[in-house]
Amino acid sequence: MICECFHFMGAQNVEVNMIEIRMHGRGGQGAVVACKILASALYKEGKFAQSFPSFGVERRGAPVMAFTRIDNKPIHLRTEIYEPDHLIILDATLLQSVNVTTGLKPGGKILINSALPAAQFQLPDSFIVKTIDASQIAVIHGLGTRATPIVNTAILGAFSKFTGIVGLNAIESAILEYVPVKAEANVKATHEAYQMLKAENPADLVV
Amino acid sequence: MKDALESNNGKPVFAMSVTDMHKNKTGSWRYMRPIYDEKTPPCIKGCPAGERIPQYFALVKEKRYQDAWHLILEDNPLPGVCGRVCYHPCEGVCNRKDFDETIAIHNLERFVADQNVGNSFPQRFFAEKTGKKTAIIGSGPAGLSAAFQLARKGHAVTIYESLAEPGGMLQMGIPKYRLPREVLEKEINDIKSLGVEIITNTEIGKDKPWQELSDTFDSILVATGATKSRPMQIPGEDLEGVSSGLAFLREFNMQHKRDIKKKIVIIGGGNTAIDCARSAIRLGAYVTIIYRRSRHEMPAVPEEIAEAEAEGVKIIYLTNPIEFIGNGKLEKIKLVQMQLGQPDADGRRRPVPIKGSEFEIEADQVMLAIGEVPKLDFLPEGVHEKWGRVDVDAYQMSNNKGVFACGDSANGPIGTVVDAIATGKRAAIAIDSYLTNQETEFVHYGKVVGFNEINLDYFKKEKRVKQNRNNQKEVLSNFNEVHLGISESDALYEAERCFSCGICTYCDTCLIYCPDVAITKAPDGKGYIINYEFCKGCGLCVHECPRNAMTFEEELKWRIV
Amino acid sequence: MADSLIAEGLEKYFNPETTAEVKAIEGTHAASYAAKLARVKVVSAYPITPQTTIVEKLSEMCASGEMEAEFIKVESEHSAMACVIGAESTGTRSFTATSSQGLALMHEELHWATGARLPVVMANVNRALGAPWNIWADQTDSLAQRDTGWIQCYAESNQEVLDMIIQAYRLAEIVMLPVMVNMDAFFLSHTTEPVALPKQELVDQFLPEYNPKYKMDINDPHAFGGLAKPDTYMELRYNIQKSMEDAHRLIPEVADEFEKVIGRNHGGLIEEYQTKDAEYLIVTSGTITGTSRIVVDQLRAQGLKLGLLKIRFFRPFPVKEVQSVLGKIKKIAVIDRNLSFGRCGIFFSELQAALYNCECRPLLNGYVAGLGGRDVTPKTIEKIVNHLIASEKGEDLIWMELNI
User: Fold this and answer.
1) Is C7's Cβ below 8 Å from some Cβ in A?
2) From the DSSP assignment, how many helices (H) and strands (E) are in chain C?
3) CA–CA min distance C254, chain B (Å)
């Protein structure tokens, strides 16, 4: 694992601003764990990452947020994320109750867990929106029930394909390290979501 | 860099002892000194024979029943008898009575005796012979007790008994339902095992002259007891059917005479009256006791009175006979009701007849049990008597040198088995000193521990054990023993309840409390040693001692010594 | 795009030579792993948000046998500290952790640990005190324990939490004083970031087995905690002060030693950032420091000679270190996420007192910000810097971003 950590040591240092991701979900959906997996996966690719939940006391079903910061240098910033670069929405119904795009930078990508096409959500044109039916993928792989699917690993697969910020192998490796039960099923779900994310406009996909 | 825990003077920089407590000779602070000071428990003083009760309880607690028996024997050779018939004054003074219930000392004594039915006296009781000879007249408890103590000291003892069997009042007076005769026989045989000779059917003055005794023996002890019933001195006493209670008991107990009338009236309130009543009721009679005072003044043991009533004996209090009526044979008794007046010499309120309260009851037999007096007509001229008894000095000796008296035949404490045993023991000690020409040493009791000197924090309230007893209906149809003693577990429980007033039980409380660890166990585990180099005289040990086996004294007293 | 994020010189932070594993973990787990690496033998703690995950992880590790330590369950923080005091009295390396009200409940035992000279190490998650209930970041809980004689340090990152707990044992066991390692609630405690777990053999090399000169030992009985009368008590207090002064000297030495073995150095009692030519200085502690670094970089890019002073140790207080930074500094802004009612920010008053005897006395402003977990953003800090530059006279207490 250590070798993997330092595998990319010789990579070129390109001056790029920090990337900030905000994930919206409901208490119990696994948003916090998803961000932890994301941070771990990013580190495995040689990137600095920081993830944290919206600080406080969450209850099952309540709207929650989790955040991930990514940078090519140590992250000193110790604040909440107000102007994210990308969004991940674990539950589409949140769009009706929470103004999820608050602070999202123009050109930001929004990944929504939904069986509906992206256009259905009528989000501003300044954002790139994609949907993935992560719930169905999760259920197929035995992750939670149809009523309460655990979508956090599947959505990461789609996020990987959508943004290219993190590679599928690193996510897989992080899942194996951080997910205590059904790790294999989670990995499969991640792969499936990656494969399933459709490129309505192939240019949107960075592969 | 030097160790952060060490300061410049080399000592730790935090509160830690650097030497042990031996350096600090706290004994120099002492102005009061605790000492182990065993005191007299009230029960020992309360027992006329001076049985060492808490000490034998300690042995019972260790299940050392034979050792416990030996310890009792030192003071009383008849524990099986006393464990049954004694009126147990020890219990009356027991400190525990003010806490919950008095300790069942009486039951424990019997328990110990019963555990040793198959055992004989220990070797240490068999002393080397001194060659001195003592004659004892009477084989009752007083004579047996004296014989035992004298034999233990190596003196030859011969007892002369007028009746066919030894035991005196134990044999002729006490009913078998209270004292099975095998118990008495066992203990008499034990005494005989020491070489004591008992010659029965020999009345001094009749079958053997006094002179022969005084010629043969170095000393004589009169222990004949009180065997003569006191008369009522009222009209009709010579009627047929009027007799002495004691004679009834003697004839029944020793000659097995069972013929008895139906309507029996017993006059008197002592133990003889109760014994007569309970024996008669077992023979199928209707029994009424007439007593001239109230129950409160009744001299019989309260338990016995209760037993008698439970068995169907009717007791009429505050009533006295004034005439026995009949034509040659008793038919009726004329009685008068009494009331209590001023207390008399012995503290009991004197009964006074109520005028005009006379009434009659039917009776076909009357037993008089209003007291007995000694029969001393065999004594030679010149032996002083007092109130019909031999007048003895503090050493149980009469004015006739070498002639001693004890029990009911001497003046002094009278009336009970244990008093007889006690004076017998006392007489033996005096005779021994007379025979060996040595100083007499009686036990002097020190301070008696009072109830308020017990540390009650160490005791919890507990019920007293109850003796097992035979079925109430069955006991009335025979003369089997009514009480059956207590179980071993009850005995251990009861011994454990004992405060052990003033007597150390090695409970370690003193040792645990000593803040200076100045108290250690004695090497043999029995007792403690106080290291006065370290005892600072705080008094915690004395204060905490549950049983007042320690005393706190002024240090000056010891320093000056 | 993805590749552009790959960092250069990761080994600077996660030296592969000394690292057994890099794990993306929360600050609380960094504390748990540190205790394990320090080969703590007794853990006793009572859970309280946001410290709970420290205890959870430790109890898991104790239960699974991953950690060879006794986990003693207790009914309160007071008992937890009492347990650890007992364990340390026998010369056993022990660990506990708490937060906020829990720390307050420990208060009298904290004094005892110091007076008994027990090198207890404790992680404290800085959380606001009630009433009203608030579980978010605020340093008043630990700063209120100022006079208990505990060495206190404040971490800025999860890596620093881990490294400082290991160093704390080294330091504590030399000077025989307890150490409290503090981390901000949530900003560290619940933030996941990569942390290098050093190789166990290197930690063992850095942190030798603990065997104090005096300890409770059934084979060598002594009485502990007895009465010290007026004729000795003051000397014992003097010795504690001397040991605190020793700690002051030893903190950078221990940090250097740690660097030699493990390859990381977070600084001594203070860390200076861009102070050499600075005219303006921000003084911070805890996680506000990280955010301030970004502001310093940004404003320096605009030509402002701004520096940052991170106070790592509150006790012993880095008086001479702070004095030595002054140089050309004209104005200083102290940012406190804490408050002593009736006075001002606590770091501010300490700093102000430390500078009183200096010949050069810069203008000193005290800013209280972020109480009860309110976010202190780069914007907040920029506001502070702007206010500082405009200030003509020092002010002890300036409230930031107050909604009144």
Assistant:
1) yes
2) 13, 15
3) 14
ipTM of the complex: 0.89
Q: Supply A20's token pair.
A: 């900030």
Question: Cβ contact (<8 Å) for C243 and B18?
Answer: no
- C-alpha to C-alpha distance for C209 and B336, rounded to whole angstroms: 103
C373 to chain A: nearest residue by CA? Answer: A55
Mean pLDDT of C270-291: 97
Q: Is C7 helix (H, G, I), strand (E, B) or coil?
A: coil
Instruction: State which residues form the domain around C372.
Output: 270-399
Contact B36, B521 (CB under 8 A): no
CA C196 to chain A, closest CA, distance in angstroms equals 10
- Position B420, amino acid: A
Reading the block at residue C44, the tokens are: 């006793």
Per residue in C212-262, pLDDT (tens digit) is 999 999 999 888 988 999 999 999 999 999 999 999 999 999 999 999 999
Minimum distance, in Å, between the CA of residue B520 and any CA atom of chain C: 19
Domain boundary among C214, C243, C262: C262
Residues C237 and C366 in one domain: no
For domain B257-370, the CATH class is: alpha beta
| CATH 3.30.70.20 in chain B, residue ranges | 21-38+504-560
Is A134 within the bounds of a domain? Answer: yes
CATH of the domain at C119: 3.40.50.970
> pTM score, two decimals?
0.70
User: What confidence score (pLDDT) does residue C14 get?
Assistant: 80
Report residue C33's pLDDT band, with 50, 70 and 90 as the boundaries. Answer: very high
Q: Decide if A4 is inside a domain.
A: no
**DSSP per residue, B266-311:** EE--SHHHHHHHHHHHHTT-EEEEE-SS-GGG--S-HHHHHHHHHT
CATH of region B43-121+447-490? 1.10.1060.10
Please indicate whether, in this complex, the C-beta atoms of B15 and C176 are within 8 angstroms of each other.
no
Give the residue on C whose Cα is nearest the Cα of A164: C2
Burial class (CB in 10 A: 0-12, 13-18, 19+), B110: buried
Q: For the segment B138-195, what is each residue's pLDDT rounded down to a tens digit? A: 999 999 999 999 999 999 999 999 999 999 999 999 999 999 999 999 999 999 999 9
3-state SS class at B419: helix
User: How many other CB atoms are found less than 10 A from the CB of residue C359?
Assistant: 6
Q: Which domain holds residue A124?
A: 18-204
Can you tell me which residue has the tokens 């071993």? B488
Residue C3 pLDDT exceeds 70 = no
Residue A136 lies in a domain: yes
Q: Which fold has domain B21-38+504-560?
A: Alpha-Beta Plaits (3.30.70)
Rounded Cα gap, residues B53 and B41, in angstroms: 9
Instruction: Give the span between the Cα atoms of A200 and A132, in whole angstroms.
Output: 12
- Among candidate residues C96, C77, C84, the one with its CA nearest the CA of residue C165: C96
3-class secondary structure, B435: helix
The chains in contact with chain C, meaning 3 or more Cβ pairs closer than 8 Å, are A, B
Whether C1 maps to a domain, the answer reads: no
Same domain, C201 and C292: no
- Complete DSSP assignment for B143-206: HHHHHHHHHHTT-EEEEE-SSSSS-THHHHTS-TTTS-HHHHHHHHHHHHTTT-EEE-S--BTT
Hey, are the CB atoms on A5 and C14 less than 8 Å from each other? yes
Distance from C-alpha of B224 to C-alpha of B203, rounded to nearest angstrom? 10
Query: 47-76 in C: which are within 8 Å (CB) of A?
Result: 49
Distance, in Å, from the CA atom of B265 to the CA atom of A141, rounded to the nearest integer, reads 108
Name the domain boundary from C202, C232, C262. C262
Instruction: Tell me the pLDDT tens digit for each residue of A70-113.
Output: 998 889 999 999 999 999 999 999 999 889 999 999 999 999 99
Q: Computed from CA positions of residues C256, C257, C263, C269, in that sequence, does the dihedral angle turn out positive or negative?
A: negative
Contact C117 B15 (CB under 8 A): no
